[in-house]
Design goal:
GO biological process, one term: acetyl-CoA metabolic process
Strand content: 25-35%
Number of strands: 17
CATH superfamily: Thiolase/Chalcone synthase
EC number: 2.3.3.10
Family: Belongs to the thiolase-like superfamily. HMG-CoA synthase family.
Strand order of the largest sheet: 5-4-6-7-1-8-13-12-11
Largest sheet: 9 strands, mixed
Organism: Marinobacterium lacunae
Number of helices: 12
Bound molecules: acetoacetyl-coenzyme A
Radius of gyration: 20 Å
Shape: globular
Pfam family, one: HMG_CoA_synt_C
Distance between the termini: 40 Å
CATH topology: Peroxisomal Thiolase, Chain A, domain 1
Amino acid sequence: MSVGIDEISFYTSSYYFDLRTLAEVQNTDPEKYYVGIGQEKMGMAAPDEDVVTMAANAASPLIERVGPDAVSTLLFATETGIDQSKAAGVYVHRLLGLNANCRVVELKQACYSATAALQMACALVARDPRRKVLVVASDIARYDLNTPGEATQGCGAVAMLIGANPRLVSIDPEVGNYTEDVMDFWRPNYRSTALVDGKYSTKIYLKSLKKAWESFREASPLVFEDLRHFCYHLPFSRMAQKAHQHLVKLNKAAMAPEQIEAQIEPTLSYNRIIGNSYTASMYIGLCSLLETCRENLAGQRIGFFSYGSGCVAEFFSGTVQAGYEQHLHADRHSKMLSEREALSYDEYLNLYRHPDPRDGGEHELPHITRGRFRLAAISHHKREYIPC
Ligand code: CAA
């Protein structure tokens, strides 16, 4: 029996800010963003959207298909936590109408935790192959204005049903891990934006890739040449290009630049126009590969590099299943992305500065999201989520 990703769906806000507009305001060359970091647009959450509503939007089409009783566990990965105690997934559990016997927990380790959730889900499915595990990863990437990180913001959520004999990608059991206590990117509880040592974070990312790959090579019989495409954690798409060049060099693989590029380019299309979605980003990259790559990927092995600052990294692999293309949500995703609305600089600042009330008073939120669920109010320190 194989175990892995049976179905995958993602969601991002209906509003985006174009990095050309940011470059204009900053009097910077837009090519710095479009080429230098490889990003074009960044998703901006509406005031009545957060990690809960985005996750429910991503997951609802999957639950509509399998029914709420098929899911034994909901694992919610995020680094945009809304509560120090209650798991955000409990709200999602209600919004999706999941069975009361379904367990729910939230996982955190920067952008890595969705991969921990995926591996735990595979183990749970191996124990009880009749049920599925729902993994959701949902984040809003926020940095201070007028910092180098500002251009690498974004928002998005991904939902994956993990099951036995999966229809999309089986996941191999061998993994390579690397953990080191470093301060490259972090967000203390009292801050709404992340702190980051940008250049250092890119160096640690590459070091972790080398270490996780070496650990993977000790665990797995696979060699570099067995892997056809590579999905990397995507803080910005140029990071994946640098990482892949690094991996090719480590393996002394004789490849032309176009061949190196072809192994990752199809994974980048969605993230270039959504921006960083932290925990969700590598899996939105997988959606991009499965849904936009012109080649038939059936039978191909994919390498995955998951990185969470602080830091924990993991390299693992999986195989695309025959017939995968019949089980994708490509049309819905492409419609959602093409119908988004561009924000002016002032509108972007309004969304960026939207207050996160902490006073325990009554706060009704305007209905702005075009998603299926919204945060309608915050009242007496309680968040009220409703379907639209
Ligand atoms: N045309 C083309 N390219 C240009 C250009 C122009 N006019 N102007 C500049 N560039 C290029 C630069 O040469 C540079 O390319 P190289 O890296 O290949 O040298 C690139 O654009 C970026 O320019 P800078 O070096 O000036 O970088 P910056 O100071 O603007 O900051 C950054 C870049 C450090 C990534 C910053 O965006 C940042 O801090 N981002 C947040 C942190 C981050 O994403 N880190 C990634 C690793 S950590 C992680 O992965 C976890 C996570 O999700 C956060």
